[in-house]
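step 3/5: co-fold with magnesium ion
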Amino acid sequence: MFALQAACPERLDSKRLLFLDVDGVLHPLKVRLMGQQQLDTSHCFNPGCMDELRRVILQSGADLVVTSSWRQFETARNVLAKNLGHYGLRVKDWTTTAGGESNEARVDQILSYVTALDLEAWAVVDDEDLAPEALQSSEGMMKMLFRQHFVRTDSSKGLDKSSADSLIQLLNDEENV
Ligand SMILES: [Mg+2]
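step 4/5: write tokens
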């Protein structure tokens, strides 16, 4: 494995990326505060959602880049990495936090990531509508491009079969770059 990595690193470096949100994707959106303002994460990493994510990765060979606010704090990053690890998944990278956490900033962070790379395919999954459809005249080309790569989950369910199927389709479509 080590020698192979040294011999042909480009083969192991995926050219397909899945930009991943966490809350409302890997579990239904439900935030509860326990005593002492401690965050209750007992509902997190729903097995059904995690299995669907694993299916997307197995069927597309994509790498994971985390866009969720979970990327902001080391403790949260570690919890996320550990839980993905239980399903044989790992985080390749995190998008920058520069520009803030608004939906618009998130779109910019993702677009600046993909335009810097020579990718074969990419997709974004989030339970919030990151790039709402606007009037055609006021629409930027980049926002239109973004929407072609975007799959929205139902925040009360998280990643389900149909949203996972849409991601697999996008990530296996090399025309859609
Ligand atoms: Mg979310």
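step 5/5: annotate
The domain at 12-171 is CATH 3.40.50.1000 (Rossmann fold).
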